[in-house]
Structures are given as C-alpha cells and as structure tokens.
Amino acid sequence: MVYVALLRGINVGGKNKIDMKLLKQTFERVGMESVVTYINSGNIIFIHDGFSKSEIAHILEKAIYEDFGMHIKVMVRSHDDFKIIMDSLPETWKNDQLMKSDVMFLWDDVDGESVLGKLVIKPEIDTVKYVTGAILWSVDKKNVTKSGMTKIIGTNLYKKITVRNVNTARKIYELMQTAQNQ
C-alpha cells in the first residue's frame, strides 16, 4: 500500500535539521520500500504492507529517534486518505503571489468537523473547509495578517496539525499516484 509520512517541524527555522538522504535510509532500514522524499520539510512517500498507519507512525518515530536523536511526530496517510483531501481541494486554490492556500493535516485525535469551532474564522477574509483528515484554508495574500486563522499558532490544536501549502500537497499526491501505478 502507498503511504506518505508527514513529519512535523523538521528543517523549519534552522531547528530539527534532518538530511533527507539520511532520512530515506532510515525509512528503508525499518522496512519501507520505494521510498521517495519531496522537499526538505519532511514529506516521504513509500510502500509498505502489513502494519496499520498508527503502527507505521510508531515505527518511524522510533527509528527517527534512534538515528537522529529527535522526537519528531509522524503522521501517516494512505493514498486513499490523501485522495479524499485532494478531491475536496478547489482547483482554483493556489499558493502564489496573490493567494495563500494551505492543507492543515489533522492528527486522528482532533480529526472531526467540530475542530472548526476551535478556529478563529473571519468569513469575509478566510475560506475554510473541513474534510476528513484536514482543514483546507485559503486567503488573499493581502489579507493574511488580518486572517483569524493565524491565531492557531501556539495553541494546543496547532500542536496536533502539520501544514503543507496546496502546491506541496498536490505534488505529494502526484508522487503517491506514481507509486500507486508502479
């Protein structure tokens, strides 16, 4: 089965630095196959059969600690999980000079539509959608500082999400589809 591991908080602002080539070797060491990394922010596509997503996440967190001495949270999503999110992502959403659009992937213990109640959403500025596994957010770049969504930073909920911009999410899905079709 094709999966992606989304690592939270690596190679951000000079903290938790992990070389992607070494990380790929770590994944292979613990039995993940056809491992592909995408950019430096901790996106690893791989194939594995035999364990649940939570078991795989535990194996990977332990291996990362063993190899790098860091406690890094790992979210594992299957190709099918990712497809649900990508099918809900409006094609017009971009991450460019005019628009900021993100996918906020949710850990299982906060995954539910009720999560929207924990957010500061300004409907006149923010476009926010819940989909199983994620919150989708888009805002005009000129309004980012006025957005209520930026208030999530530093909250307990923020510790239970990992964010990728829509361009990155789309590329991850493309890589997962390639792995699925091999």
UniProtKB/TrEMBL annotation:
SUPFAM superfamilies: SP0830-like (SSF160379). Pfam families: DUF1697. Gene3D superfamilies: bacterial protein sp0830 like, SP0830-like domains. This is DUF1697 domain-containing protein. It comes from Siminovitchia fordii.
